[in-house]
Amino acid sequence: MITLGLTALALIVSLVFLVKELYRPANYPPEMRARKDEPDTTFTDVQLTMIILDIFIAGGHTTSTTLDLAFMMMIMRPDVQKKVHDEIDSQLAPDALPHYDDRLNLPYIEAFLLEVHRFFSIVPVNGPRRAIVDSTLGGFRIPKNTTVFMVQRNVHMDPEHWGDPEVFRPERFLNEAREIVNSERTMPFGQGKRRCLGETLARSCLFTFFVGVMKNFCLQKPEDNGTDMEPSLTLNPGITLSPKPYNVVFQPRKGTRENEHHE
Ligand code: HEM
């Protein structure tokens, strides 16, 4: 709760400073300066502030929650954590920092992150959209102008497609040659023209941050942990899901620089 409060405070303070700086006409970006006298321009202070807010709100919580869940799965499933470590150790040089391109050599970790997206569906319902023509979908008539929502979670938990959707199993995204097999049935970032515009940034942040941490640490349940460690989700005031607070020990791995500092 305290962390959340401090994060919100830091966000508001940085936003106020940023906007104060931008409000000086000399600091306006070139397009805003060029268009400032156009009556219908959308290059305004308010528009800019709202876009920055959009990006912070849409991007910050979603990415950090997905990482929270990925780390939680590491302590819930030591067998999966071992496969993650084995893949990192066999593919990355000891001193190398992870790069997004490394995902090509780390298919198990890519499959693991896809499974985190699928299993938890942190944005369970996407939309709204408006039907712009009369149409029929799966036998249902959808009249023009109907508001439509896509229930991402139902797609991710469809037993006809996944077979065992309630099981957390990264291997479902790998074929026999250990290549990633994916389809539009995995849609954590939505679908269509209004799908998430931060998808590439989010995927690269998740991958590099997760691999960077896992390369250097073993994640363990604290011995005296009294917390409920089941993967349970709480609905935030808004549209995303996040895990209940949980405790985790980050144990430096042998041979890592991090460990040498601790010894
Ligand atoms: C794991 C991380 C993220 C997830 C799971 C996620 C998921 C989503 C989903 C499901 C939507 C709705 C798409 C739809 O209705 O079809 C969305 C929209 C959006 N996301 Fe993300 N997102 C993530 C990260 C980010 C980041 C890092 C940014 C920005 C830097 C971002 C910016 C946005 C914006 C601006 C929209 C609204 C797009 C529009 O309405 O045209 N998201 N996101």
UniProtKB/TrEMBL annotation:
Keywords: Heme, Iron, Metal-binding, Monooxygenase, Oxidoreductase. It comes from the Eukaryota. Its cofactor is heme. GO terms for biological process: organic acid metabolic process; xenobiotic metabolic process. Pfam families: p450. This is Cytochrome P450. Heme binds at C196. GO terms for cellular component: cytoplasm. Belongs to the cytochrome P450 family. GO terms for molecular function: heme binding; iron ion binding; oxidoreductase activity, acting on paired donors, with incorporation or reduction of molecular oxygen, reduced flavin or flavoprotein as one donor, and incorporation of one atom of oxygen; steroid hydroxylase activity. The keyword Transcription regulation does not apply. InterPro entries: Cyt_P450, Cyt_P450_CS, Cyt_P450_E_grp-I, Cyt_P450_sf, Cytochrome_P450_fam2. It comes from Anopheles dirus. The keyword Iron applies.
